[in-house]
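[INFO] parsing input record for Protein SENSITIVITY TO RED LIGHT REDUCED 1
[DEBUG] input buffer:
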Amino acid sequence: MVPPAAETPKPNPNEIWTFVSRRHRGKNPPNHTSRSNFQSAYSVCRPPSPWTPADSSPDPERVSKLLRRMQSSIRRFDNSRFGRRFLSRLRDPQIQERFHELTASCSQIQIVAYGIGSIESYETPRLQLALALRLKEALGDTAAGPIEVFDPVLSAAECAVLVSLGCTVIANDECGRREATAPTIFYMPHCEAVLYENLLNANWKPEMLRRMVLLGNSFGAYDRSVSEMRGINGSVDLEVHCRHLIGIRRYVLEVEMEERDDRRILKEDDDEFEFYKGFHDMSWHFFQLDRDTDLDCLCK
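[DEBUG] output buffer:
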């Protein structure tokens, strides 16, 4: 979820947000559907709680510097092959049809972004935020209000920059348990499996799942990882803790963010590799189920 950090915080086993060390470098970013990712589902799921940045107030000079860096990252996104392809694929009839279905009962769509990471420390989170901003822009009048953003690593300066870019910082750590009471795109770039599980659990009714779209880690990749791990010590527990994520697969239309050739180009092109790190193995997930679908049977 969070890109390499300047210092490696000591992980708290009761936390569901993961902090990743800066030490991982090179052409193969971490596999976000690996076993360590599933193990985060063992974390104790605390109730949503009020949240404020660890630092007390934003330094104006620091905010100004970060805003300039963020604007530079947005320009980089706009000028990149990945950025142009992403916006082009939004016009794909398959995606457009799903958005039309989503807004059939309500003309506007909310955007909630979990797990962006520290936009002050690294370029990857800035590019991930740039995508969210351009997604909202592409939706035009269909987008409802500001993008709502949360990540527990955000500083006061980062919160100030987010607000200046037209976003809202969520005041509570919801642990991913936001109910889709209105059409909502949940943007969760490389979040931990338990956050997807929490989100699905909070919306485990056909009428609620039908109101949401999820842009995040590939559910298919999670499913394949669980299948490959069957028979390995602890694999049964992992399946239990990811039961919503795996169970809903049959009712999900998954559309990959990049085609295979595009992924290869991103991985091999030094100018585009930052986009590969930020967006590899991500997909659109559209929930297609009848209003009377029995979801409880999927988790037994």
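[INFO] The beta strands are 49-50, 110-114, 148-150, 168-169, 172-173, 184-188, 212-217, 252-256, 282-287.
[INFO] shutting down worker
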